[in-house]
Amino acid sequence: MKKMLVLSFALLMFLSLAVYDSHRNNTNETSPLSTTPIESELTESWNESSNGGDTVSNNSDVRIKLLFDNGEVIVKMYDNPTSRDFLTLLPLTVTFEDYAGTEKISLLERRLSTEDAPAGSDPSVGDFTYYSPWGNLAIFYRDFGYSNGLIILGNIESGAEKLANIGSDFTVKIEKIE
Fold first, then answer.
1. C-beta separation of 171 from 95 below 8 A
2. 3 state DSSP class of 47
3. What are the C-alpha distances in Å from 80 to residues 4, 16, 46, 59?
4. What is the pLDDT of residue 142?
5. Which of 89, 79, 100, 112 is nearest to 172 (CA)?
6. Which member of 114, 116, 121, 140 lies 3.0 to 4.6 Å from 150 by CB, making a disulfide possible if both were Cys?
7. pLDDT at 82 over 90
8. Of the candidates 27, 45, 56, 41, which has an alpha carbon nearest to the alpha carbon of residue 134?
């Protein structure tokens, strides 16, 4: 009897995990971020390689400023084609909203180039990103897992703590710092 009960419980747990994993794999169509992991080597090679400036690189001296009611955020932009394309939109005024208690998102007026972009990225707190499937910016104020289609444009140097405390939609003016 005990064996049957343990086996039934194990089977139930296995099926629950399978359904959960299946749901996670299908969220790419219904949510702005998919957390389906793929080979980490692709992301690592994107972050570590140097291909004529067409990859993520901290060597850029370009910074942008995000101005809003609650203050200012400074972002150091990475040197990659998507970041460079984003910079052509500046100055820009957009409205951000909270998404999933993890990030602030804003839809852009047009899609950015995804030339030479990785299949996805694993964002960290302070990452300034572009989610290509939806065409929106995403600024992470909490850690998050790997997301297909997420391209890191830069990283916040100062002011990240101000974003997490904003509970409603807010307007941001984004401009390049000369």
1. yes
2. helix
3. 57, 41, 10, 10
4. 92
5. 89
6. 121
7. yes
8. 27
- The C-alpha atoms of residue 33 and residue 41 are separated, in whole angstroms, by 20
* Per-residue model confidence as pLDDT tens digits over 104-125: 999 999 999 999 999 999 999 9
State the Cα–Cα distance between residues 128 and 140, nearest whole angstrom. Answer: 7
146-157 in b/e form (b: 16+ CB < 10 A) is bbbbbbbbbbbe
Amino acid identity of residue 1, one-letter, is M
Tokens of 47: 């972050």
Please name the residue ranges forming H helices in the chain: 2-26, 40-48, 81-87, 160-164
Nearest CA among 64, 39, 2, 33 for reference residue 131: 33
Taking CA atoms, 44 is separated from 39, 119, 131, 134, in Å, by 9, 11, 18, 24
N-to-C CA span, the chain: 74
Residue with tokens 């100062």: 158
For residue 38, give every residue at least 6 positions away whose Cβ sits within 8 Å of its Cβ, in sequence order, or none.
Answer: 119, 120, 146, 148
- Specify the pLDDT at position 176: 97
